[in-house]
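Researcher: Predict the fold of Aspartyl protease.
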Amino acid sequence: MPLRIGVLLRVCCRCRPWRLTYWLLLLLGLAGPVIPGQGQISEPVFRLLRPHARQAKVPFALQRNLIVVTVLLNGQGPYNFLLDTGLTISLITDPEVGRELKLITAGRMMVSGAGEEKAVEAYQVPAVAVELDGHVGAARAPFLMLSDDVLNISGYVGVPVHGLLGSDVFRNLVVRIDAEQQQLVFSNPDRYHAPRGRRWTSLPLELDGYKAYLTLPVQLTDSLQLPLRLVLDTGAGHALSIETTSDPRLHLPPARLRTQLGLGLNGTINGFLGRVQALQLGRYRVGTLLTSFPDSADVAGRAETFRNGNLGFELLKRFTTIIDYPHNRLLLRPNSQFRDPFEHDMVGFDLLAFGPNYRRYRLLRIDPGGPADQAGLQAGDEITSINLIPAEFFSLTDISRMLHSADGRQLLFVVRRPGTDDLQTARVRLTRQI
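Model: Structure tokens for Aspartyl protease follow.
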């Protein structure tokens, strides 16, 4: 399942019975900085920790189109967090972290997001010291902490994930994301000089409620091109998401696939996959872009700034990306993945990783009539091998790449049926469905 972690609490790839405290206004991007001494927390400032440093390099792991960074919280860890420009306040999804660190909470609330389940309980954590690789950090960053790990992001990403770092990381630093080298470069904005060269393109960012928006021309059909306002969302694993209810001129494409689009705070986000003809990113035109069209019921009723959708990391990973909030711009330079095709998974099932090392894999859902269904696979089956190679030899990212690889490719799965020791074999032919 393509992940839409970046829009968990803004709904995003992918019902609001809460009390509108300052914390939720901050989460939604509707509250501004707080003046110390007025009974609230001060605005978190992420900075370079080495005095007089111009920049700092921090490694990351790219897992299923999501940026996973290693952090220390209150000097302890390490913990794995996703880096998410689309989330206004950071989120601890694993409450065990709070118990380990004996975090002090300041209040309780019920929060909801995308999905069909009931609201979940969360706690305010006013001040946590955060460090990324010892080079970048904030002395007092606010968090929300879920009471239960209802998201199970670890199972969908295939590595332990303890939470998400939001847009406050980007507010006072220039952040370069090199997806090929899997490296972040944080720079002091006062001493930063943007790279020059004709391969770089610069796009204006509009900062609104601590989120960054781009207005980009999208060629929807031969005769219809619209400027769409899109959230810059590194926490979304898809390339592009468009909300058709945001403009009466927006419609579902004729060729589309009904599917589950992603994971939200309260369950799966349903909708359609289709393609737009092109998206213009400065001097670069990206064609036949795989696009999510979430159901209106899954994205309606949000108290936030108007947008038509969001731009995710499946697209951004094809560039060296510089996110420059202090100078209100996004800089892009294509990398070696720029011309790779945009593909949906060609097998028709959703996987969940589990076990001590997240190297066991269970089928969560089978698309009716899809390649996996036709091959006899069933929800609940555990994959024991792929092409006669034990499943534990593959990461979840490895398997995801395999399932997006080539139309017509055949894969041999050996699975164990739930509740038995029986092994079944299934030969699946990957089929491009959209």
